[in-house]
Amino acid sequence: MLVIVCPGQGSQTPGFLTPWLAIPGVRERLGWLSAVAGMDLVKHGTESDEETIKDTAVAQPLIVASGLVSMLALFEHPADGFRLVGAGAGHSVGEITAAAAGGVISAEQAMVFVRERGRAMAQASAVQPTGMSAVMGGDPDDVTATLTRHGLTPANINGAGQVVAAGTLEQLAALTAEPPAKARVIPLKVAGAFHTEHMAPAVDVLSGYAKAMSTHDARVPLVSNRDGAVVHSGREVLGRLVSQVSNPVRWDLTMQTFKELGVTGIIEVPPAGTLSGLAKRVLKDVEILALKSPDDLEQAHRMVKEHGKSTGAAQDPTWRLVISPAKGMVSFTHSEVGTAVEAGSVVATVGTLRDTYEVVAPHGGRVVEWLVEDGDPVSPGQPVLRLHPQEG
User: Fold this and answer.
1) Is 77 labeled as catalytic in the residue annotation?
2) Are residues 54 and 65 located together in one domain of the fold?
3) Which of 45, 2, 66, 99 is nearest to 299 (CA)?
4) Which segments constitute the Malonyl-CoA:ACP transacylase (MAT) domain (predicted)?
5) Do both 342 and 210 map to the same domain?
6) Tens-digit pLDDT profile for residues 109-123
7) How many Å apart are CA 138 and CA 132, to the nearest integer?
8) Cα dihedral 351→244→83→112 (10° resolution)
9) In the chain, N or C terminus with fewer CB closer than 10 Å?
């Protein structure tokens, strides 16, 4: 199974898009996304200095656009090619890239949403000087206790011994001066305490925009960075894009879901490197590629052929599958064959040690067959119910 992962803020470097502009169609597509975003993304991706692209309002549209245009080269026909992907995921702002690639929102909607996200988060960051620092290594309990002592929030729990602390610059300076034992503290190239309560004003802004946005259910499973759940519903994906701005990113749980899904290959789209590095330390026996330049495309195309697999789903199927969002024990009130199910209704729940997840039918229909028994263990993405899409 192939997974496409999309990086978040802090992964950008000056000039990283320069080699991609030599690929036919990329410059023109990037120019169009620039028009939608209201900024010159070609210039920012090729000429702007580090300080300029560190600005949240610039960095976020630049990262999303770069991921989307790179898929023009990764897949001959991105809309169809992405169907070869077993799942998609994004880290922080990268979830917007994944949502657009997965067909939940259009590229144009993604650029408007990320433009307003970047602006709102930049404004929230301007209220008080804040930032983020990566804490590498150390005992997990000691790291947590140290962050609490300094009044910091573990905004990203990335796995592979990496936790990103967020808070005021004074709090981060205190962390640098008194780090956890056997840990390194590395300041990140971001302009605010993202995924913390400091971003609450941005959530309010994005909630308003989300109400006016249309969505489609995802073409492929999307693994949420909030809790590692597998999500298909377009409205749920959009809701999570809004709420994640002020909530921690659990990339460790996202990678755990990759393992449970049986992932064999991972490609990280530009600006690539960060997520690939984390995956290499956690997901053994998985082929991992950071798509940093067009020089990597030959390997990427081979990986798509070897690890990608078409679902073979028809455009107008005679039945639809309802899947489990997480690993756990399934529980449901059994509905007999032929029972009508409304779109958006909860048909079962999946319980884990941490949470209980609702299993939602994204489409209405009639029950054809339950594929699990009440109380069975299930995995993320596992089909639990077969529905006929026509009611009556």
Assistant:
1) no
2) yes
3) 2
4) 5-357
5) no
6) 999 999 999 999 989
7) 18
8) 150
9) C
